[in-house]
Amino acid sequence: MCFLKAALGAGFSDKTPAHTVTMACISANQAMTTGIGLIASGQSDVVVAGGVELMSDVPIRHSRKMRKMMLELNKAKTLGQRLSLISKFRLNFLSPELPAVAEFSTSETMGHSADRLAAAFAVSRLDQDEYALRSHSLAKKAQDEGLLSDVVPFKVPGRETVTKDNGIRPSSLEQMGKLKPAFIKPYGTVTAANSSFLTDGASAMLIMAEEKALALGYKPKAYLRDFVYVSQDPKDQLLLGPTYATPKVLEKAGLTMNDIDAFEFHEAFSGQILANFKAMDSDWFAQNYMGRKTKVSI
Predict the structure, then answer these.
(1) Does domain 110-289 bear CATH number 3.40.47.10?
(2) 105-154 pLDDT per residue, tens
(3) How many CB atoms lie under 10 A from the CB of residue 117?
(4) Which of 12, 196, 264, 288 qualifies as a cystine partner to 7, CB 3.0-4.6 A?
(5) Domains of the chain by residue range
(6) Cα distance between residue 250 and residue 228, in whole Å
(7) Which residues does 207 contact at the CB level (< 8 Å), separation at least 6?
(8) Pick from 147, 189, 194: nearest CA to 169
């Protein structure tokens, strides 16, 4: 329903079907591949798929007791019934229910999982800081060279227009080294500097078959050849998706690592992506956890 409202607000016809996909961090990718499926099955010719992240205004619910009272007040028919319900109100009813960010089956946040994963693969604090600094430095260079010009300016009510990614923050190893662990204290290695920050953002893409795009006069910017979704142990391998997915999608497409010039992996935490690199480069991990004879390699 939310995406339907967004579509109507964007000027799409009320005859255009739309739906919302909710699948945590992979929601936008799921929306994209769902669109591919609709096109491949002949249900749609053209699909707009996208994702939205709104971390500055997350839904915070009333407590269960407060919600129950509000619903009962809505059903009350007489003034006496309403006054009787109101008399039961207590100040602790106003205590809010903060949104759950922990993984359901482990009660750990992604930051905790990343910290444990980095420790399991012997990824040091310095390794993480160096990789994070590299990422921010390369992003700043790309931004300065105009390579991120596809960012659409957005006017935030009451504030200045956001014209570029404001999450790029090159620093120094000295400054990064001063930060304390953010999740596992006091000995953890994941900090605010080597983690992705929480922010707002959105992206969208126009998807169609190549022949449809050419018929409409569009020049395709990218092709989706194949895709795969994986799942693994949420306690110890929650953030190892790239390690499991990469060889599977390559094998499906009849490709090898040597056929790919550049990979794009989600870097939620530098410790997470470095742990994936180590897992991919391990024959032992491939044989004991992935059912492969040799490592993925990267």
Answers:
(1) yes
(2) 888 989 999 999 999 999 999 999 999 999 999 999 999 999 998 888 98
(3) 25
(4) 12
(5) 2-54, 64-94, 110-289
(6) 9
(7) 32, 35, 36, 39, 46, 47, 48, 49, 224
(8) 194
Q: Locate 211 and state its tokens.
A: 């022949």
Q: What is each CA distance from 202 to 130, 152, 167, 228, in whole angstroms?
A: 28, 10, 14, 23
Instruction: Give start and end residues of each alpha helix (H) in the chain.
Output: 2-9, 27-40, 64-75, 79-86, 110-120, 125-144, 173-176, 210-215, 241-253, 270-280, 283-289
The pLDDT confidence band at residue 1, using thresholds 50, 70 and 90, is low
Residues 59/99, Cβ–Cβ less than 8 Å: yes
CA distance to 30, 66, 69, 96, 100, per residue, from 85 (Å): 45, 11, 7, 20, 29
Residue 112 is which amino acid? Answer: H
Helices 110-120 and 270-280: angle between axes, nearest 10 degrees: 40
Residue 104 scores a pLDDT above 90: no
DSSP state of 157: T
**What are the pLDDT digits (tens) for 244-270?**
999 999 999 999 999 999 999 988 999
CA distance 271 to 237: 13
Residue closest to 235 by CA, chosen among 125, 151, 98, 117: 117
φ and ψ at residue 244, rounded to 5 degrees:
-80, -35
pLDDT in tens, 33-90: 999 999 999 999 999 998 888 888 888 899 999 999 999 999 999 999 999 999 999 9
Q: What does the alpha-carbon distance between residue 172 and residue 232 come to, in Å, rounded to a whole number?
A: 35
One-letter amino acid identity for 226?
D
Whether the Cβ atoms of residue 18 and residue 261 lie closer than 8 Å to each other: no
pTM of the predicted model over 0.70 = yes
The pLDDT value given to residue 25: 84
Cα distance between residue 133 and residue 57, in whole Å: 29
- The SS3 call for residue 195 is strand
